[in-house]
Amino acid sequence: MDVDFLNYSVGALVAADSRAATVLDAYGIDYCCHGDERLEEVCNRLSISPKGLAKNLKFYLKDQSPPTFDYDFWPMGLLANYIERKHHRYVKAQVPLIESMFKEASQEPFDRIGLLSEVRLIFWKVAEEILDQVAREERILFPYLRKMEKNEQGQIPFAGSHFDTVRKSIVTLFKEHHREGACLQELRSVTNGYKLSIHSSYWERLIYPQLEALDKDMKTHLHLENNILFPRALSAAEKVSLLV
Question: Which residues contact 144 (CB under 8 A, 6 or more apart)?
């Protein structure tokens, strides 16, 4: 990937080459919920050397195997199916599991659960929203996106008036994703990146790895929607609305 990294938005950079996510994660750069920010602007805001980051990106991408999947070129329906079957299924299993662990931990004496009371409040602030959001995507938005794709292929008609439904759904989801991204950042901060120590409680040792796994999956999940699927859906819906 021989490009001028600094002129890319962070979301577009990861969309173009998913391997870049590893480097951005190492710098603590949010590409999933703030993907529209140019890399150079992010560097200036976070006091990161732009040239140093660009050099590290070039070095890392040069020596790594090409990404397995190039999601940016997947058909819209295929990408929606992939998100639903991989990331939605994971979220629907993982969130209730972590919730049940927190409920069990809450029965323990306060001095035996460490920071978990604070961590639990942050997690519960967003857990139900994530499940509700996934359900709405599967019930409303994703079926629309599949119909839009079939419309583009000339298989079925798709009313231009449905554009507003698609647009409003995506705008709402963008706002929710920003809140979820902020909560994930809070979790990373209060748990020190989910790190454990010899003083960590039993429940911290049990729950932190589950939270870290959810965090990692959500980064990819939100990136695929915010930086690839949703912009493409808005563009396709706009084209349909212009035909009315």
Answer: 162, 165, 166, 169
**Contact present, 23 and 62 (Cβ < 8 Å):** no
- Tokens of residue 206, six digits: 């049990």
Beta bridge partners of residue 62, listed in sequence order: none
Q: Check if the beta carbon of residue 71 is closer than 8 Å to that of residue 19.
A: no
Is residue 11 within 8 A of residue 36, CB to CB? The reply is yes
- Which pLDDT tens digit goes with each residue over 94-126? 999 999 999 888 887 665 566 788 898 899 888
pLDDT digits (tens, 9 = 90+) for 32-73: 988 899 988 999 999 999 889 988 988 888 877 777 778 888
Identify the CA nearest to 129 among candidates 180, 164, 93. 180
Write down all domains in the chain, each with its CATH number in brackets: 5-63 (1.10.3910), 71-242 (no CATH)
Do residues 19 and 64 touch, judged by C-beta distance below 8 A?
yes
Q: Output Rg (C-alpha) for the chain, integer angstroms.
A: 20
Helices (H) and strands (E) in the chain, counts: 11, 0
Which distant-in-sequence residues (6+ apart) come within 8 Å of 112 by Cβ? Answer: 201, 202, 203
Of residues 134 and 241, the one with the higher pLDDT is 134
| Cα(166)–Cα(232) distance, integer angstroms | 11
Across the range 152-171, mean pLDDT stands at 71
pTM over 0.90: no
User: For residue 143, what are its two tokens?
Assistant: 């079926």
**DSSP code, position 7:** G
How many CB atoms are closer than 10 A to CB 155? 10
